[in-house]
Amino acid sequence: MSGLILALLVAAGAAVVAQNLLMVQITSSVSTVLITLLINSAAGFVILLSLLLGRAGLAGIGEAFGALRYWSLLPGLLGSFFVFASIFGYQRLGAAATISVLVASQLLVGLAVDFIRASHLDLQGCLSSLCGAVLLVAGAYLVASRHF
């Protein structure tokens, strides 16, 4: 099972790089990155809506509306911000520098969240995680430093 999860994550990482490269191409042919973001979001919306309708019919639409809360739009806003920042970075810094900074920042915030949510802290696990984070941040700095 862990091999399947690893393969899924590797495929998703490659897909994000391909997505961003394609979105940079779209952005270069339109007047604003907002058009690119709208196309990206619309494609996802249509695909997900089709899958929901195929799986649950109109009842799925009702359930989706019933699940809406005042904070439900935040994940979409955060996702759109991530995609916008990625496109901006790819255009100005290139893929490697953008990815290195994004991954390093995700790891640092992810570690902080895991530490906060942990019911108990294993000192050896914490130290190895922190060492890995330091190495990843150092690598990100080396990859991106020529741009800053």
Features:
mainly alpha
Structural notes for this entry:
By secondary structure, this protein is mainly α. It is 84% helix and 0% strand. The protein has two domains: 1-70; 93-148. It contains six helices and no strands. It is globular and about 50 Å long. InterPro entries: YdcZ.
Task: Please write out the topology.
Blueprint: H1 2-28, H2 33-56, H3 58-67, H4 74-92, H5 95-117, H6 123-144
Helix pairs in contact: 1-2, 1-4, 2-3, 2-4, 4-5, 5-6
Compact summary:
The protein is mainly alpha-helical. 84% of the residues lie in helices and 0% in strands.
Run of helices and strands: HHHHHH
- The total domain count is 2
Q: What oligomeric arrangement do these chains adopt?
A: single chain
Residues in helices, as a percent range: over 70%
What is the C-alpha radius of gyration, as a whole number of Å? Answer: 19 Å
**Total beta strands:** 0
Instruction: Give the overall form.
Output: globular
Uncertain stretches of 5 or more adjacent residues: none
Total helices: the number is 6
Task: Quickly give the structural class.
Answer: mainly alpha
Largest sheet, described in full? none
